[in-house]
């Protein structure tokens, strides 16, 4: 009776799983995401906390027995500033935020981004804590002055439920944690000019740490004081755990708001002279890491296209079926985010484009071109991350069988889809069960998965398509401007 809670950017979901890893009770509700002029994207901590209370109370009411623990995961990056009691000192700044676009460009040109990458194996982007904090330090220092902690979504919720100020090592990995030692790299903090704000960084909790609901948290959720609570990892590594990634070389594709491509590795070694992008995330297991390439080109682009064409997202699959591989000659670059791209390269000025359009182009061709381009971006991410083993997938994008097949064809490998879609909450529950000394049967939890196979007749076509995508991307990068 562990309730897993996944606090996403726009949706919070609570799930309870049976012994086979299938959901037996669930609830979800939406969070408010405020898109403001100038590329600003913010959220209200109290509103997000309210979504957690709503789904937890709803799920708890459906259960026959008592809740034994609460397992939290959720969105990463961004900046959630709080005071000592956990109250927000300003609206939370989302990982989608673009106010630090120009600052990040300056760091790239001046070598700051490269220096931080060399020390931590994580690239910076406009929506990461370092860029946002540095921007606020210049333009809104009073917010940092009022704060006791500069953290993330999951630890912000945890503080309000338990009173504890801490952070999971996966969240702290970007961009200041040395993944090998799980300690902050002071020189990386100094490189971005934040040494004088060092007191705002909470120390990472040890793996398998268990917290307890305090009176305030218990009252909010309607659960007993002292109930065990775990917090983390954040949604990307939680999804890897929940999907079944266990062996070095295995990877997971998350086709959600973020197109997250992750590969498990047992080595903290990396090329310090490589592209300063992506993340090197600590996991719940000492000596294991996730090389993550969370691109900004996920399902948000599909949502944009649905609004543009006046269609429902459920129609994407049928529209894909109306267009052949190659989309009738239409090609796309999928960089629709206002804050550009963050993996496998970082460029705040990255922008989308469509080419090859004619009067004969149909909606299905444009939809397929965008979906194919996102699959090409996934391939580029996995090449950077070092995928060699089994590939798992989750997220709203893989609900479309045809789009999942496009991913398989472009990546040239079969894709394993977990039987239950709530893999973020699933991963959080697995972590909680381990921490409580009652681990789940992971082999049993994996039995419900299905496999989407590669269509051999399409592999050669998409090989050429990927080469064309890379050429178009290289040409476009020389023209982007903030």
From TrEMBL:
Classification via SUPFAM superfamilies: Actin-like ATPase domain (SSF53067)
Domain Carbohydrate kinase FGGY C-terminal: residue ranges: 322-433
Kinase in keyword set: yes
Sequence ranges assigned to domain Carbohydrate kinase FGGY N-terminal in this UniProt record: 1-242
Gene Ontology biological-process annotations: D-xylose metabolic process
Keyword Transferase appears in the UniProt entry: yes
Molecular function via GO: kinase activity
Keywords attached to this entry: Carbohydrate metabolism, Kinase, Transferase, Xylose metabolism
Any Pfam family: FGGY_C
Protein family per UniProt: Belongs to the FGGY kinase family.
Entry protein name: Erythritol kinase
């Amino acid at each position: 009776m562990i309730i897993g809670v996944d606090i996403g950017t726009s949706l919070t979901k609570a799930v309870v799983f049976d012994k086979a890893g299938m959901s037996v009770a669930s609830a979800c509700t939406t969070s408010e995401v405020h898109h403001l002029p100038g590329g600003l994207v913010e959220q209200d901590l109290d509103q997000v906390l309210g979504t957690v209370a709503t789904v937890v109370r709803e799920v708890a009411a459906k259960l026959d027995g008592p809740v034994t623990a609460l397992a939290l995961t959720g969105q990463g990056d961004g900046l959630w500033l709080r005071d000592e009691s956990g109250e927000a000192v300003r609206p939370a700044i989302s990982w989608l935020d673009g106010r630090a676009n120009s600052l990040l460009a300056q760091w790239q040109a001046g070598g700051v981004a490269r220096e931080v990458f060399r020390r931590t194996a994580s690239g910076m982007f406009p929506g990461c804590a370092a860029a946002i904090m540095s921007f606020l330090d210049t333009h809104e220092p009073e917010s940092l002055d009022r704060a006791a902690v500069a953290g993330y979504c999951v630890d912000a919720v945890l503080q309000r439920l338990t009173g504890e100020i801490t952070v999971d090592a996966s969240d702290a990995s970007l961009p200041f944690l040395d993944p090998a030692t799980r300690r902050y790299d002071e020189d990386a903090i100094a490189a971005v000019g934040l040494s004088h704000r060092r007191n705002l960084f909470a120390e990472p909790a040890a793996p398998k740490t268990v917290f307890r609901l305090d009176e305030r948290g218990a009252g909010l959720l309607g659960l007993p004081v002292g109930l065990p609570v775990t917090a983390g990892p954040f949604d990307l590594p939680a999804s890897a755990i929940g999907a079944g990634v266990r062996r070095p070389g295995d990877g997971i594709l998350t086709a959600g708001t973020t197109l997250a491509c992750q590969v498990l590795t047992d080595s903290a070694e990396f090329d310090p002279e490589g592209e300063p992008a992506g993340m090197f995330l600590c996991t719940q297991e000492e000596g294991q890491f996730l090389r993550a390439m969370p691109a900004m080109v996920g399902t948000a682009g599909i949502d944009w296209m649905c609004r543009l064409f006046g269609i429902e997202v459920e129609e994407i699959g049928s529209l894909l079926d109306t267009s052949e591989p190659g989309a009738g000659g239409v090609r796309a670059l999928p960089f629709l985010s206002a804050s550009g791209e963050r993996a496998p390269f970082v460029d705040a000025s990255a922008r989308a484009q469509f080419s090859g359009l004619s009067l004969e182009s149909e909606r299905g061709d444009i939809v397929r071109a965008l979906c194919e381009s996102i699959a090409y971006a996934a391939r580029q991410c996995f090449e950077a991350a070092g995928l060699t083993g089994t590939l798992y997938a989750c997220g709203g994008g893989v609900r479309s069988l045809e789009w999942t097949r496009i991913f398989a064809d472009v990546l040239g490998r079969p894709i394993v889809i977990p039987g239950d879609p709530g893999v973020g909450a699933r991963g959080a529950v697995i972590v909680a069960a381990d921490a409580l000394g009652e681990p789940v049967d992971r082999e049993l939890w994996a039995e419900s998965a299905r496999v989407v196979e590669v269509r051999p007749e399409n592999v050669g076509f998409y090989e050429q398509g990927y080469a064309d995508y890379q050429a178009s991307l290289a040409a476009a990068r020389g023209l982007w401007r903030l």
